[in-house]
Amino acid sequence: MARTDADADEAPLLSEEPLRPGACSRELELREFRDRYVIRSLDGGAAFAVSRSGGSISPLSPEEAAAGSDCKVSRIYGVAGIIRLLAGSYVLVITSRKDAGSYQGSPVYHVNSMKFLCCNEAIKHLTSQEKRDEAYFMSLLRIAETTCGLYYSYDRDLTLNLQRASKLAAGRIHKPLWKQADPRFVWNKNLLEELIEAKLDEFIIPLIQGSFQSAQFTLKDRPVRITLFSRRCNRRLGTRMWRRGANLEGATANFVETEQLVEYEGHTSSFTQVRGSIPLLWEQIVDLSYKPRLSIIEHEETPKVVQRHFYDLLQRYGETVVIDLTDKRGDEGDLSNAFAAEMGRIHGVRYVHFDFHHVCRGGNFDILQVLYNQIEEAIQKQGYFLMNSKGEILLEQSGVVRSNCIDCLDRTNVTQSFLARKSLDSQLQRMGALSSSESISISDNNNDVFKKLWVEHGDELSLEYAGSYALKGDLVRYGRQTLPGLIKDGMSALSRYYLNNFHDGVRQDALDLISGYYTVSQGSSSPFQAGGFESASYLPVASAIIVGGITATTFTLSQVGRNAQHFISSIVCAGLTVGVIVLVKANGKQFCSRPRLCGLI
């Protein structure tokens, strides 16, 4: 059972254990004075103060940090960074955590809650417009505080997969964690800059957004541990509808590296896959349609964008196989055809199209064997990483499979889980846990453990990008579509529609602000000056009428058989609902939640 910080008073302090070289402080004390915040380590005595008037940082000695008693004292579990706005600075601290498991012997924690400490007393000197802007920025910080899927370790770099970490110089572990980290996967990279400038290495914690699950089962009376760890790239961070495709540098939306680790009898293996949006310039602007039109942006740089993306993959992962799971018809078909045309110009990368919806339309998970047969030779050639208990490398993974659909969520997760199960069988056979003819599927219990990991993994990644649970989860869990699964998918689809149309514009602004895509400075243009945003105040009313109308229509229709009055009520409710939808749809771009800061980038 996971232990949260609520149990901290009854549990022994982690500070009793010595810190590893390069490790961060595990337990911190926050002291809130009227004029400053003091944050001090309970591990080693290091401390610093942040002025509440402007956010200036001052290192403190242990004696200075302990001085004074007229303050509020609380425990925090990390400093996630600092952001500077118009009125001053805001310090993001981790206020609650829970144990998520371990990675290579080091504890991994999930961030339960965060809070921004305000150092903004200069707000009284701002103009009325600047105060309005600052209030909006602060509302975005409150959204950022609720970011889900954040993980960290105090003494282990979590940004590198096992193969990359094992091949780097041993001396790197003596460096501070932020210097060890791959900046692509540090969610709070932009927020760490002031802490780095102040040389507060002991307090700098890289946060990884993604998914971390771990489970154990038994084979041949010996334990097997599987860990599923996904790392989301920060180069094109965003929400489902507001970050599509690639930018001019070749970075794609929803790019995630997923590593499946297996530990058995002293051996550890790792199989890595990646996913990411189709690396073309394209968009899908919300307009209250259930499925907005996809639009390919014609740009002379498109061939170079695709080249940059795959050159980066080839350099990092080696031989690359691309699995495009999109439809061959409609807008998806146009996008898929454009992708295929560009891939014809890329050397050293194999492109495979697999129309998931068409081939698997019966809802049978095992039909993916058709796809696997096409790429089996390439996957076996790429292999996986394997090392023994002495840390000696026995095998290396020489390439990667890159999967995508439109969102890189549902179809992608089903496909990646299928490939991961195939690799898991090979790894366990090599380790001696299975014979050459056996599969993990021979044991229902063990197979269920594996499926549950991938279902939870898919849900977490979907919540981060789309705001709802993943669809098609029962394909992973049961190998087929089920009625409860269809109902759950329907609810998730409605949730996505609502969030994408009415909330994701503001969420996108929050991500752009904390990731540094939008920089706040004195004299910069106000996010309110573009106009056209005031209609957002009508969104709660419009959406409430629509949802209420649909609910009332459904209820009255269920009563139609009883008398004519219910039939008339159904017609009235349906008419009102349709009328509101038509009105809102006619003004779709005004009613939809749209980013104010950066828009589409």
TrEMBL record:
Keyword terms of this UniProt record: Membrane, Transmembrane, Transmembrane helix
Entry's transmembrane regions: 567-586
Residues forming coiled coils: none
Signal peptide: none
Pfam families: Syja_N
InterPro entries according to UniProt: SAC_dom
Occurrences of domain SAC (ranges): 141-467
Domain of life per record: Eukaryota
Name recorded for this polypeptide: SAC domain-containing protein
